Amino acid sequence: MLGGAVLLAVAQSLGFAPWYGINSFPDPSYLAGLWGSKGFWVSVGLTLYYSLAATLLALLLALTTATLLVRSFHGRAVFGALYRLPLVVPYGVGIALAVIMMGNGGLVSRGLAALGWIDDPSGFPRLLNTHAGWGVIAVYVWKQLPFMVVAIHAVMVGADREQAEAAVVLGASRSDVFRHVTLPQIAPGILSATLICFAFNMGAFEAPFILGGGYPDTLPVLAWRFFNDADYTMQLRGMAAVVSIAALTGALVLAYLAAYRAYERSIGRA
154-185: per-residue pLDDT in tens? Predict the structure, then answer.
């Protein structure tokens, strides 16, 4: 089913749509017209920015959280339960929370105004519906952080702690222990978590559509606009956008896997 859907999408992006009275396959004009537009490459940049920024920020927070969870501290059980809550909350709810919390009339701006830190809620910096994408990134990180923590923490728990303890005894600093001992052990967990989250972010539609800055849109939103155009033949260009998303994501994932394999070889593990 997946292979057939992919082949049909590629065929449509190349002019195969007899149900619309169009059958010029193979016709690269739909892809060429999309790739030749200036707005398309701006959309590519925005999509990559949102996806990479959210994935990297979630990874940094996940590493910190997972490191805390392998230690014993008061309230660890409560903290371990709370950080998992976003896993069961739909993305739509996260988007609504972002609007309620981060908007210029939201809870944060009203709270700061009540404390006298700003004169009026409208003076709060605009975080939503801008191309800076703070709201989009916040929703991605909020939702994906628990998933990354679960994946990385599971690997950390099973890691050999004797090597880290031996490195400390031999005079290694904490940063050296993390870079040379801990990181190679948890690298497979980092790889799987970041791959899944990045691929999802590249194709996500709801958050950029509702919280993004409008034109130019991310690639998924651009594809949606083509599909909803009054000219139904624009759906072929929409399918060209979908194929472009898949091709770009696939190329980046393969490059990431190649870099990971090079890292594995550099530490003598492949």
Answer: 887 776 666 666 766 667 777 777 777 777 78
Positive or negative torsion for Cα 111, 115, 121, 126: negative
User: What CATH code is carried by the domain that includes residue 79?
Assistant: 1.10.3720.10
| Residue numbers of the domain that contains 64 | 44-228
The Cα-based distances of 101 to 54, 81, 112, 134, 238 in angstroms read 19, 22, 12, 12, 33
Count other Cβ atoms within 10 Å, centred on residue 99: 16
Among 210, 200, 205, which Cα is nearest to 226's? 205
185-217 pLDDT, tens digit per residue, is 888 888 989 999 999 999 888 899 998 888 888
| Plot region of 72 (φ>0 → left; ψ -120 to 50 → alpha; else → beta) | beta
The pTM of the full predicted model, rounded to 2 decimals, is 0.85
Count the domains in the chain: 1
Q: Does some domain include residue 156?
A: yes
Q: What would the DSSP string read from start to end of 44-67?
A: HHHHHHHHHHHHHHHHHHHHHHHH
In a domain, 33, yes or no: no
Pull the structure tokens for residue 33. 């017209």
Residue 96 lies in a domain: yes
Name the one residue in this structure whose structure tokens are 């880290």: 164
